[in-house]
Write a structure and sequence with these properties.
The protein has 15 helices and twelve strands. The chain is of the alpha+beta class. It has three domains: 226 residues, Rhopdopsin 7-helix transmembrane proteins (Up-down Bundle); 96 residues, PAS domain (Beta-Lactamase); 169 residues, Histidine kinase-like ATPase, C-terminal domain (Heat Shock Protein 90, 2-Layer Sandwich), CATH 3.30.565. It has a five-stranded antiparallel beta sheet with strand order 2-1-5-4-3, with helices on both faces. The chain has a five-stranded mixed beta sheet with strand order 7-9-10-12-11, covered by helices on one side. It has a two-stranded antiparallel sheet with strand order 6-8. The longest helix has 45 residues.
Length: 548
């Protein structure tokens, strides 16, 4: 076969049809990589080139304005757009730069062609030189792209070859001005045969580049999600047919296994037996499409003992079958904290109830004391009455004041309270400075109600001693008030309070004379269920023995 007799019109027709078929194939196949930014540009480039070849094929049948000028201009535009598509497929991040490159190569090619197309003898040279910038740009970026693979290098070298061919065609036209588009010649064969080859090779190349790009994006996506899943603070598991298909490292560590060991194990084996029926019910309802809570809590068998978890579950499709995707959070510490808060709240509610009850009882006690005081006030001055009432109230207030400062509302130490109480009472009597105060107190935490009762007993006894035991003062004795609290055995206490003063007269029946203070002491001793003894020789003292 004589290559010089190659049927150029037929070849151009085949190029027009080939570009159209290439565009259609790309549209059909493009669904597999629809997100690739180069696909639509490449399809448009093929359609423009097909239109250009049709116009060139009609050379001599339609005006030159359409067949020659417009046809070659569209061909230049199509090749420039093909440059953009191929380059973007290599480096998508530079699509804005490649857009500018497309405009530049297209403008340069069209300018070269239009400037030379006026000389009809060199129309072939003009068209050849105008196409070179686009092919040169493709060759450069395919060979110099970052991480260029063998496919990129092959496409780049093929375009280098095309640049050389079109340079040769333009030189041939300058040497033979009679060379026309439809004229059969060896240079025409060397031009259109590679163009026909490029039609096939570039379609395959752009498809492969799209696939390479999709594979790269898929690997990046897998790496990204694998990193997210493996480094997540929550456990992530995929369950199918009641067995683990996948579990991340966090999920495995919760169950004391490795991710590989969990594969194929039944999930119910890790639920605490008491919670297992609930887990089974929720699992079955979700798999059957029935109502089931998306988030629920239960306990699992963990290496350190049962732990509470929160499971967020959803039904998905995995390899054509229903599966459960679970997101698991360890809430054991949260549960423990909530239980502590619940207990504290219950204690606070109980304490508040106790406070209300104590306030009520104390107000009732104040009213009783005032009534008793009013019945006994006829033999005392107003100052004495007010001072006695104040001391009794101080006894009650001091208990709760010390509780508040201590931060403990259920128990109060006996030593600090009773010793401080006696010192406060003594400070209200000007002559008490010459009286020695002796203390022998064991320190025991006591309920505020019982301790308040002891305080009132001590208040009455000490007040009576300060008021009556040493007035007038006897120079023969050293005035002393003593207070002791000591354990008798492991279950009882002995309280002794008294003085070494003048003593107290005794009635003919052998009982000590009555008074409000003594009445209160007797009444409160009965409230404590205490055995009480009163000594009146060598002073007055009260001894009470009561259960701890």
């Amino acid at each position: 076969m004589n290559l010089q007799l190659l049927d150029i019109p037929t070849m151009i027709t085949m190029l027009a049809a080939g570009n159209l078929v290439s565009a259609i194939c790309m549209v059909v196949y493009g669904a597999a990589w629809a997100e690739d930014p180069s696909r639509s540009r490449f399809v448009l480039a093929r359609l423009i080139q097909s239109t250009a070849w049709v116009l060139l094929r009609l050379r001599g049948m339609i005006p030159d304005l359409f067949s020659f000028q417009l046809g070659n201009t569209l061909l230049i535009t199509g090749f420039s757009l093909e440059t953009l598509a191929l380059c973007v497929s290599v480096e998508p991040a530079k699509k804005r730069f490649f857009g500018r490159l497309f405009m530049a190569t297209c403008a340069l090619g069209c300018s070269v062609f239009l400037s030379m197309s006026g000389a009809r003898s060199y129309g072939v040279a003009a068209a050849s030189l105008a196409i070179i910038p686009s092919f040169a740009a493709i060759a450069f970026y395919m060979l110099s792209a970052n991480k260029a693979g063998r496919l990129h290098k092959f496409i780049g070298l093929s375009y280098v070859f095309f640049v050389l061919i079109f340079c040769y065609r333009s030189i041939a036209n300058f040497r033979d001005p009679t060379l026309r588009l439809m004229k059969s010649a060896l240079v025409q064969t060397y031009t259109f045969a590679p163009v026909a080859f490029s039609l096939i090779a570039n379609s395959i190349g752009i498809t492969l580049l799209g696939r390479v790009r999709q594979d790269q994006l898929l690997r990046e996506s897998e790496d990204k999600y694998r990193t997210l899943v493996e480094r997540a603070d929550e456990g992530i598991a995929l369950v199918q047919n009641g067995q683990f298909l996948f579990a991340n490292q966090r999920m495995a560590s919760m169950l004391g296994k490795t991710a590989e060991e969990l594969k194929g194990l039944p999930i119910l084996g890790f639920a605490l037996p008491d919670d297992r029926p609930m887990v089974i019910e929720n699992f079955n309802n979700r798999m059957q499409g029935l109502a089931a809570p998306e988030v629920y809590e239960f306990r699992i068998v963990a290496p350190g003992g049962p732990r509470w978890i929160s499971l967020t579950a959803s039904r998905i499709q995995w390899i054509g079958q229903d599966a459960i995707l679970g997101i698991v959070s360890d809430i054991d510490d949260k549960k423990r904290d909530m239980e502590k808060i619940r207990l504290l709240l219950r204690d606070k509610e109980t304490l508040l109830s106790e406070v209300h009850h104590r306030v009520k009882n104390n107000l009732a006690l104040v009213m009783s004391l005032l009534e008793l005081q009013s019945g006994d006030s006829g033999v005392h001055s107003a100052d004495d009455v007010i001072r006695d009432a104040k001391n009794r109230l101080r006894t009650m207030i001091d208990v709760y004041d010390r509780l508040g400062r201590r931060g403990e509302f259920r128990k109060q130490g006996t030593r600090d309270y009773l010793e401080g109480l006696v010192m406060d009472i003594a400070s209200t009597y000007p002559w008490a400075g010459g009286i020695r105060l002796d203390f022998k107190l064991v320190d025991i935490d006591m309920d505020p109600n019982r301790l308040g009762t002891l305080g009132i007993i001590v208040n009455e006894a000490v007040t009576n001693s300060l008021k009556y035991a040493f007035r007038p003062l006897d120079a023969s004795i050293a005035p002393r008030i003593f207070l002791s609290l000591e354990p008798i055995d492991g279950q009882r206490l002995r309280l002794t309070v008294g003085d070494n003063g003048r003593g107290m007269p005794v009635s003919s029946s052998g009982e000590t004379s009555s008074g409000l203070g003594l009445s209160l002491i007797t009444m409160l001793a009965e409230q404590l269920k205490a055995n009480m003894k009163t000594l009146t020789e060598g002073g007055v003292s009260y001894t009470l023995e009561f259960a701890l």
